[in-house]
């Protein structure tokens, strides 16, 4: 850990249990549950809560409460919670997407952090299987409203599904725009704009034409190699992407349907940057804060940047400067010698300085970023 | 996925392009004469020269250097059909085995009619191809009105006979008329069976409900390769192309004193996958070594052929008399993809059990290319649905058909499924939009659709023409009658994947 960085990072949990590499983690948006998935074809669920007892008040502890034997015949590569927190989607290398809900989930309403009792009652059931991808499914994501689900695959396609009642889904679009493997899909935080990242080095953005079909309205080029991961800023004005070319790019929405690269961050990773996540962060932040961006990858590093909006455009200059950023914290060898496959911010109130990582060592780690106290 | 890679050549974006390499290995086709040594003692190796050719060389006796050049493997369309991996390598096969040059080569090599080896060349033209040509001609002329399809057919007829040497030119709408009759009959069989078997699905040998349209070869290919569970639902009625094939080879040919292999039958189609359909083993006659349709060329390929021969379809010709044998351009109201759903709705509406005034049809377009049709009967004041159908076009809607039918099955009685968005007028083999409409694929499809439905200025009333067609159809059915209905029905089978995606870039 770099001592001269402003924030302190501590590993607050090290969750073992997967028998093979851990690919991805997802924080339930409404309940104290963290999910992880792995090449061992399972999803593990952890309940967490704040310890108010001695010896360590305020610390967070995690408890494994459930393992879903998904029935996927290959690696579970990615997972996503619906915004309601009730449904979990799994994307597998067996080309299918699983939709999971808990039996009797309606009754259980305890959300304020008491472990045990309520959380591990009903079994997780596969409510629906979305077939259609030809080969390995790489990523899955719910739109902010929860009405749409997107997936992507090595078959070069991006699919949009409409979520219907009773775990029914209708295919709304199959976009065959990329010329190679599609690595990740990500939704805009408020609008129905979908972004996809691909081995063809591009990012594509899609919207719906209600009288016709979903279509690609923009292709963002600039990365010199595979784009592994995408994250919209919490305010939706920016999109971050990371790549095999060892850079992180920040794209700004300059017009309704126009996004431009405004910043290239280099020299912060020595190997492929596999994953980025953009959260609001926690603690006292100015009006101009754009939140915290975390990145990780093959070099085992976790970098956390704080972003600030540029000063308001002066009428005379016309051009808007890019958002400013500085490195807030860094972890090296986060999973020992192993690659770190993904990073995710906890979205829950009061815990937005918590992030989780999944590594090739099969371990899921949880990290707490503590920014300096304002003096 | 299983749509022909060739389709993607026309810039449609509704298809998944297969990426995997062909798995068919180099094989030895010409029998090798065994060396005069003890059996099993021969030892050979395969060497590859700088040009990429394969040689079989003896490793025993290097002094007598003998290398035999091995034949490169020939990939037939059937190999491609039997493989769920690539259709990409089928592109070249498609182009060499069923192309306009193949047609020209055949016509050039065809002995004169006096020769017993002479084959009667027949051209069958799909109405969607006529519409595509009509829209294309209208876009390049000053008149915005599309040329009526009978006039386009007359021009093609003149060109095909006088320049190319075809002896007969028909459109495929009479074949479609037969296909629709058979389709309705099949629907009734299934309906009767499913109601006699109680609720739920009928036995698989009769086929299940909902019945799914069978005319789109892209859909058939996809279902056989990735959704075998759909096969019992797919109608077994042949497509108009293959009905035309049966008609030409087994009904017309005898009238000309020809055996099935004495006729060379070319079909002009809006779709590349029609080539795959024509080459299915079901449509091959082992006895005569002949296919019902010998060669399929797309509208685009036909236009190229016109250009190469210096033929200008914009020059009017006198409206031709109908060719003897088969009536021209029967209109079937409904959709430009063959009116399969409408023919069933019409049949149900006119059936005695439902007096026409007792049934009401309501339609609802859920989204582009997905429309539902509900026939309701008024009974004691309330309205009861008696039939639910839908048209579902394009890969996206096709996914929902597969999901719905696989899941509940019961929502529809019939679905007109087509793989292309917009249906057959927007087939992968159709003419590309003119430069003015470049990138406006949907606007262009609308133009072709308009041309498809543009009224023909014919003397004969449609009713009279229809009645004549019905009488002829009855005659054809009687003359080609077979208890097994083989001439107008076919079957499907699941294709197992053999592809291991090892050679694929990650």
UniProtKB/TrEMBL annotation, chain A:
Pfam name, any one: WD40
GO biological process terms held by the UniProt record: iron-sulfur cluster assembly
Gene Ontology CC entries for this record: cytosolic [4Fe-4S] assembly targeting complex
WD repeat extents: 15-46, 69-110, 130-163, 175-206, 220-252, 340-375
Tree of life domain: Eukaryota
SMART domains with a match to the protein in the record: WD40
Keywords attached to this entry: Repeat, WD repeat
Function comment: Essential component of the cytosolic iron-sulfur (Fe/S) protein assembly machinery. Required for the maturation of extramitochondrial Fe/S proteins.
Record-stated family: Belongs to the WD repeat CIA1 family.
Official protein name in the record: Probable cytosolic iron-sulfur protein assembly protein 1
Organism of derivation: Gloeophyllum trabeum (strain ATCC 11539 / FP-39264 / Madison 617)
Gene (UniProt): CIA1
From TrEMBL, chain B:
Highest taxon, organism lineage: Eukaryota
Family annotation (InterPro entries): Cytosolic_Fe-S_CAF, Fe_hydrogenase, Fe_hydrogenase_lsu_C
Residue ranges occupied by any Iron hydrogenase large subunit C-terminal domain in the UniProt entry: 153-428
UniProtKB keywords: 4Fe-4S, Iron, Iron-sulfur, Metal-binding
Keyword Nucleotidyltransferase assigned: no
GO MF: 4 iron, 4 sulfur cluster binding
Family recorded in the similarity comment: Belongs to the NARF family.
Protein name: Iron hydrogenase
Species for this entry: Gloeophyllum trabeum (strain ATCC 11539 / FP-39264 / Madison 617) (Brown rot fungus)
């Amino acid at each position: 850990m770099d001592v001269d960085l402003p924030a302190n990072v501590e590993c607050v949990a090290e969750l073992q249990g997967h028998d093979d590499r851990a690919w991805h983690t997802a924080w339930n948006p409404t309940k104290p549950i963290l999910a992880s998935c792995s090449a061992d074809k399972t999803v593990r669920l952890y309940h967490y809560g704040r310890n108010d007892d001695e010896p360590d008040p305020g610390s967070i502890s995690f408890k494994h409460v459930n393992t879903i034997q998904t029935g996927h015949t290959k690696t579970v590569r990615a997972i996503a919670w619906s915004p309601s927190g009730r449904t979990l989607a799994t994307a597998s290398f067996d080309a299918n997407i699983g939709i999971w809900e808990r039996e009797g989930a309606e009754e259980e309403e305890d959300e304020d952090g008491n472990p045990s009792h309520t959380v591990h009652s009903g079994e997780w059931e596969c409510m629906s299987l979305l077939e259609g991808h030809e080969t390995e499914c790489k990523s899955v994501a719910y739109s902010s409203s929860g009405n749409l689900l997107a997936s992507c695959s090595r078959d070069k396609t991006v699919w949009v599904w409409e979520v219907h009642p009773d775990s029914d889904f209708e295919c709304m679009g199959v976009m065959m725009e990329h010329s190679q493997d599609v690595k990740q899909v990500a939704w805009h935080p408020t609008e129905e704009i979908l972004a996809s990242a691909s081995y063809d080095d591009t990012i594509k953005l899609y919207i719906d034409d209600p009288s016709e079909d979903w279509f690609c309205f923009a292709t963002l080029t600039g990365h010199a190699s595979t784009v592994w991961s995408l994250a919209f800023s919490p305010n939706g004005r920016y999109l971050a992407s990371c790549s095999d070319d060892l850079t992180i790019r920040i794209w700004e929405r300059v017009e309704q349907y126009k996004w431009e690269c405004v910043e290239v961050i280099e020299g912060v990773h020595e190997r492929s940057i596999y994953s980025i996540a953009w959260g609001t962060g926690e603690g006292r932040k100015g009006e101009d804060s754009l939140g915290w961006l975390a990145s990780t990858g093959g070099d085992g590093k976790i970098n956390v940047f704080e972003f600030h909006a540029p000063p308001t455009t002066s009428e005379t200059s016309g051009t808007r400067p890019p958002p400013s950023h500085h490195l807030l914290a860094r972890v090296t060898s986060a999973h020992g010698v192993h690659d770190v496959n993904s990073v995710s911010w906890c979205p829950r109130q009061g815990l937005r300085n918590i992030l989780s990582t999944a590594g090739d060592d099969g371990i899921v780690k949880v990290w707490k970023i503590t920014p300096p106290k304002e003096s | 996925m299983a749509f022909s890679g060739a389709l993607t050549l026309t810039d449609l974006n509704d298809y998944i392009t297969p990426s995997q390499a062909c798995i068919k290995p180099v094989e030895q086709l010409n029998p090798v004469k065994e060396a005069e040594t003890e059996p099993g003692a021969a030892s050979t190796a395969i060497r590859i020269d700088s040009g990429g050719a394969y040689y079989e060389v003896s490793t025993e006796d290097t002094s007598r250097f003998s290398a035999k050049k091995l034949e490169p493997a020939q990939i037939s369309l059937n190999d491609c059909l039997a493989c769920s991996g690539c259709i990409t390598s089928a592109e070249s096969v498609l182009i060499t085995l069923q192309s306009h040059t193949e047609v020209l080569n055949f016509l050039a090599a065809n002995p004169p009619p006096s020769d017993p080896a002479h084959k009667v060349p027949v051209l069958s033209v799909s109405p969607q191809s006529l519409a595509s040509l009509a829209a294309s001609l209208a876009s390049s002329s000053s008149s915005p009105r599309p040329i009526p399809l009978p006039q386009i057919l007359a021009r093609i007829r003149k060109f095909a006979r006088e320049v190319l040497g075809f002896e007969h030119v028909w459109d495929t709408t009479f074949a479609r008329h037969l296909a629709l009759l058979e389709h309705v009959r099949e629907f009734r069989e299934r309906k009767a069976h499913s109601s006699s078997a109680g609720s739920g699905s009928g036995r698989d040998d009769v086929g299940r409900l909902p019945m799914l349209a069978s005319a789109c070869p892209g859909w058939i290919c996809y279902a056989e390769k990735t959704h075998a569970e759909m096969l019992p639902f797919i109608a077994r009625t042949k497509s108009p192309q293959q009905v035309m094939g049966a008609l030409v080879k087994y009904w017309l040919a005898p009238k000309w004193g020809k055996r099935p292999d004495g006729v060379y039958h070319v079909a002009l189609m809006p779709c590349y996958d029609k080539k795959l359909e024509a080459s299915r083993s079901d449509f091959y006659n082992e006895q005569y070594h002949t296919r019902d349709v010998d060669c399929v060329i797309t509208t685009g390929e036909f236009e190229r052929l016109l250009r190469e021969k210096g033929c200008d379809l914009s020059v009017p010709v006198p409206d031709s008399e109908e060719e003897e044998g088969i009536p021209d351009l029967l209109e079937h109201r409904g959709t430009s993809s063959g009116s399969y759903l409408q023919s069933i709705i019409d049949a149900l509406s006119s059936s005695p059990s439902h007096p026409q005034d007792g049934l009401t049809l309501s339609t609802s377009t859920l989204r582009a290319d997905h429309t539902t049709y509900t026939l309701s009967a008024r009974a004691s004041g309330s309205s009861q649905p008696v039939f639910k159908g839908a048209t579902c076009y394009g890969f996206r809607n096709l996914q929902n058909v597969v999901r719905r039918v696989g899941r509940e099955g019961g929502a529809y009685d019939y679905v007109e499924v087509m793989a292309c968005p917009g249906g057959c007028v927007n087939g992968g083999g159709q003419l590309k939009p003119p430069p003015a409409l470049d990138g406006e694929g949907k606007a262009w499809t609308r133009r072709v659709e308009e041309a498809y439905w543009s009224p023909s200025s014919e003397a004969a009333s449609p009713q009279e023409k229809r009645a004549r067609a019905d009488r002829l159809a009855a005659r054809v059915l009687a003359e080609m009658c077979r208890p097994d209905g083989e001439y107008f029905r076919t079957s499907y089978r699941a294709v197992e994947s053999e592809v291991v995606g090892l050679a694929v870039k990650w």
